[in-house]
Amino acid sequence: MIETPGAPVELTRNWYVIQTKTKKELEAKAYLSMKGVEVFSPTMEIVSARGGRMVSEERALFPGYLFGRFNLLEDYSLVRWGRGVRKIVGFGAEPIPVADEVIELIRHRAQGGELVKKACSFEENDLVRVRSGPMKDLLGVFERWVSDSERVRILLNLVGFHPAVELHYSLLEKVA
Q1: Using an 8 Å Cβ cutoff, are 169 and 150 in contact?
Q2: Hey, is 144 helix, strand or coil?
Q3: Cα–Cα distance between 137 and 140 in angstroms, integer?
């Protein structure tokens, strides 16, 4: 595009990766959102065993990073020196935009929100292994999904006995 003197400069808003200070993702997100920057901070669900119970919590999909959509010419200093921000990721001193398709792909996996669900393709009679918890490393056979609770029913392979157990799907992995 050839610019002529006095012609308006095209102001495009692109996505950029913003590195945050240690454990300051929420602070940076709140500050930038308040200043009018569109922020996307995808999270994932982690299920772990604590105190004999299964506990579910959300964690950042990319710890220490978030995506921000802004005009580089107008908003660079606002974002770069924002509360909780370490830097805008790029090559050398030049921030590099992220393609809109990348953000849309992540948003599609998050079904429009920010919680990205783990893609799993368990089918009936698949051999699975428990990855963590009190039944770690036990083998079983996938039986079925249990309603919409993200839990699955497997038949454990114990010595001559196959008890049915319901677990969160993230605790399982397919065995080849």
Answers
A1: yes
A2: strand
A3: 10
pLDDT band at 46 (very low <50, low <70, confident <90, very high): confident
Residues 54-75 have pLDDT tens digits of 677 888 889 999 999 999 999 9
Indicate the pTM of the whole model. 0.68
Which of 116, 139, 163 terminates a domain? The answer is 116
Q: How many domains is the chain built from?
A: 2
CATH number reported for the structural domain that contains residue 143 in this entry: 2.30.30.30
Say how far apart CA 135 and CA 131 lie, in whole Å: 8
Structural domain containing residue 45? 14-116
| Token pair listed for 9 | 């400069």
52 and 89 belong to one structural domain: yes
Residue 69 belongs to a domain with what CATH number? 3.30.70.940
Cβ pair 131, 49 in contact under 8 A: no
Cα–Cα distances (Å) from 66 to 38, 119, 166, in that order, read: 11, 21, 35
Task: Cite the DSSP H helix spans in 5-127.
Answer: 25-34, 72-80, 100-109
**Closest among 165, 117, 160 to 142, alpha carbons compared:** 165
In a domain, 157, yes or no: yes
136-168 pLDDT per residue, tens = 888 888 888 886 667 788 888 887 788 888 888
